[in-house]
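Q: I'm writing a short methods note and want an example of a predicted protein-small molecule complex. Could you take the sequence and the SMILES for adenosine-5'-triphosphate and return the bound structure as tokens? Please keep the output block clean; save any remarks for afterwards.
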Amino acid sequence: MITLRGLTKRFGDRAAVDGLSLEVAAGKVTGFLGPNGAGKSTTMRMVVGLDRPSAGEALVGGRRYGEMRHPLREVGALLDAGAVHPGRSARAHLLAMARSNGIARGRVEEVLAMVGLEAVTGRRAGTFSLGMRQRLGIAGALLGDPGVLMFDEPVNGLDPDGVVWVRRLMRSLAAQGRTVFVSSHLMSEMQLTADHLAVIGKGRLLADAPMAEVIAAGPGNAVRVRSPRAQVLAGRLAAAGGQVRHAGGEELRVAGLAVERVGLIAFEAGVPVLELGAVQASLEEAYMELTGASVEYGATAGTGV
Ligand SMILES: Nc1ncnc2c1ncn2[C@@H]1O[C@H](COP(=O)(O)OP(=O)(O)OP(=O)(O)O)[C@@H](O)[C@H]1O
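A: Understood, no commentary inside the block.
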């Protein structure tokens, strides 16, 4: 389990992480979401002692990282796949990590095989593709067979096979009872991978709930309809009890009416329909609504759903 208590990190007069309290439970994949600059990486770095908190604390299994004799056996992390000496082979890199944490040499070959790098163990890490470096980083996280694992954007640079592999790996680590804490910007992938979500914005907690609850709290199922006479159609749909939102241009999002009903109302009103379809409730839409006010860099108008 990972416990964050009032965790705060200031850089100058700016709080990158701002009084964050959270428990990341064992036996689940917990997705860690938030816009760019929300403080996800900084939070993870504090858990493994790479950044020192300005206030509060981050504990793994009730202890601080600095108090652990063999930290890699308790918490493994993929934080920056580029942080490998380019002149070292994959094997040499992992052997050095193993030695400093009292981990048997044989475990190095084991984790290299687990991540699919067994054919390139002697090759210098500097020649690796981004996907291979991600795999090497994951091997490093798994090296000490820890009960707690953190992955910062693990599918970055991976091809579709690699993405599915990471998803299965996360699920199986959680099924073994481990704590799996993973950040990602890919909402559809996260929806398939995580059981639970912690969402932050500007360093503060916005949501800490099971995936199903986060999605249910979002805009939910809706009907998407596009018409050159969207204004007229919106009036008719509202009169029939629909909650109508203008989604930019000719498009409307309608909640509370079935797709067939929307089609019939348009027909009765003599309004042309260019597109009509159901929109499934998704993490992406729920996330957009949750974080809308916390996005630091981004377009502001005309993107609404
Ligand atoms: N060493 C540093 N010095 C100064 N500011 C920093 C430092 N590290 C991070 N920050 C700032 O802290 C804030 C949080 O950054 P962080 O990388 O933790 O966000 P993130 O949620 O991981 O973002 P992304 O999704 O883009 O990776 C940002 O505004 C960033 O510029």
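A: Remarks, as requested: The chain is about 35% helix and 25% strand. The two ends are 36 Å apart (CA to CA).
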